[in-house]
Amino acid sequence: MLSLDLSPRPTAGQEARQLLDERLREQLSEDLLADLMVVVTELVNNSVQHGPDAPIQLRVAITDDGGVHGEVEDQGNDADIAIRDSSRGLGGGGLGLLIVDSLTDRWAVSEGSTVVRFELSVAA
Fold first, then answer.
1. Which phi and psi angles does 33 have, rounded to 5°?
2. Burial class (CB in 10 A: 0-12, 13-18, 19+), 8
3. What is the pLDDT at residue 75?
4. What is the pLDDT of residues 33-89, one digit of tens each?
5. Could you tell me the domains of the chain?
6. Which residues of 57-87 are buried (b: 16+ CB within 10 A; e: fewer)?
């Protein structure tokens, strides 16, 4: 399992992407790694923007079948994480969870927390 602690600053998503690329490039297909980097970037950026300004933990594990299970935790205690209504337009941002939803097989928020878990399969 890959476990990273990230500082809650605007560059955290970029740092996470770079570390994933360096450490998992040889273990994942190019497409799966690209999807993983987008999902992680969106979740980490959400943690930076909405979290409590505390360290962000990223954990990623490669499954036996070559897929990925992961989670992002920002130490928050408010589980008010929801997909924004995209009918309101793209101007104000806030569509990151729609991206996460479209790229993952499953994602969920652990009850009573801001731990977001996700799964990507080889076929994703």
1. -65, -40
2. middle
3. 85
4. 999 999 999 999 999 988 888 999 999 999 999 999 999 999 887 655 555 444 455
5. 2-120 (3.30.565.10)
6. bbebebeeeebbebbbbbbbeeeebeeeeee
